[in-house]
Design a protein that fits this description.
Blueprint (H helix, E strand, L loop, with lengths): L2 E5 L4 H12 L3 E5 L8 H9 L7 E4 L6 H10 L4 E4 L13 H22 L3 E7 L23 H20 L3 E6 L2 E2 L8 H10 L3 E4 L6 E2 L2 E2 H13 L22 E6 L5 E2 H12 L4 E4 L15 H7 L7 H15 L4
Parallel strand pairs: 1-2, 1-4, 2-3, 4-5, 5-6, 6-11, 7-10, 8-13
Antiparallel strand pairs: 9-12
């Protein structure tokens, strides 16, 4: 895959992935409208590491702008597309649901149409562990049905998987959906727990700990996510001739469609996560215990057997190493001694 479009290229995962692919010799076009869901300066600083040059071009386009998206696909011949642009966040979907429809649904169909009409060889797109919703069988398996989302964000990601399957069926577009599990690390999103906790602890402020601390997450380090995505891009899915409609496997299909989990395959207690952060900061947190929030789930845990089988890859960075690296970056970025 020589020329790759990454949507959300100024985002947390997008910027890291762009660096990885450029290092692998690919030409990357990075789409990002630098919106203000969180501080655009952080996005600009991520992009600064991807300075304009022969291997990287930034295009400032809103994914929901149908005409601009059509023009983009007409101007470029992409070998692969990685769709990471999305309105993220579970809790924000209770406040501003329309933004999830605009970006995650309207925007995604614009990506699908662009791929369909320009002969893209492989569309890889970000789904989410949130699609497991009310499922409680652990670890979460891509071979289980995920028909009971508990947030609009989760529903929009499940819808992406359904939309992708339709285009794989109708037009033979190879699509691979990746369910990411609680990604963290340097350059992370400031609306996520690790960023919020670090900022509050250093400022001597209390941190909100939901479900009274009885939360478990499959925390996955950013480099592990990016390595997984890079491998997936290069392997175009094919139809499974053993797939049966009378016993359908949600993770595969008779058409070129696949879904994978990318997680650490290791659920950690939120309180342990906070303890590691406290150790790295050398400072204790003042914890404000709160009930489970609407749209949240108490636990996530990824079954990554298919990822291991098909790509010989399994994320393995411990939270001890990952949080230490984040804290080092955070202090350097914010000029904290």
């Amino acid at each position: 895959m020589k020329k790759i479009l990454i949507t959300g290229a100024a985002g947390f995962i997008g910027a890291h992935l762009a660096q990885k692919l450029i290092g692998n010799g690919a030409e990357v076009v990075g789409l990002d409208n630098l919106n203000d869901y969180y501080d655009p300066q952080l996005k600009k600083d991520r992009m600064a590491a991807l300075a304009e040059g022969p291997q990287f071009t930034h295009v400032n386009i809103d994914l929901a702008d149908r005409q601009a998206m059509e023009s983009l696909f007409q101007e470029h011949a992409f070998d692969a597309v990685v769709n990471l642009a999305a309105q993220a966040g579970v809790r924000y979907s209770l406040i501003n649901p329309h933004s999830y429809v605009d970006t995650n649904l309207v925007g995604f169909v614009n990506v699908l149409e662009g791929c369909r009409h320009s002969g893209v060889k492989h569309l890889v797109y970000a789904s989410s562990s949130s699609v497991y919703g009310a499922n409680t069988a652990m670890p979460f398996s891509v071979h289980d049905n995920v028909d009971h989302p508990v947030s609009l964000y989760a529903a929009s990601k499940k819808a992406n998987e359904l939309m992708a399957h339709t285009y794989s069926h109708l037009f033979g577009l190879p699509t691979t959906g990746l369910r990411f599990f609680t990604v963290y690390g340097p350059w992370g999103r400031p609306d996520m727990a690790l960023f919020l906790f670090t900022r509050a602890i250093l400022a001597g402020e209390s941190i909100d700990v939901f479900n009274n601390g009885n939360m478990e997450r499959d925390f996955t380090y950013i480099d592990d996510i990016v390595e997984g995505v890079a491998r997936v891009i290069e392997k175009v899915p094919e139809g499974d001739f053993n797939w049966r409609g009378d016993s359908p496997d949600p993770a595969t299909s008779y058409c070129p469609y696949r879904v994978y989990n990318i997680g650490n395959n290791n659920k950690e207690q939120l309180l342990r996560y906070i303890q590691v952060l406290e150790d790295c900061l050398g400072k204790k947190a003042d914890k404000n215990f709160l009930p489970l929030q609407p749209g949240d789930v108490p636990a996530t845990y990824a079954d990554v057997d298919d990822l291991v089988k098909d790509f010989d890859y399994k994320p393995d960075t411990s939270i001890d190493k990952g949080i230490e690296r984040f804290v080092s970056w955070y202090k350097e970025y914010n000029a904290i001694s």
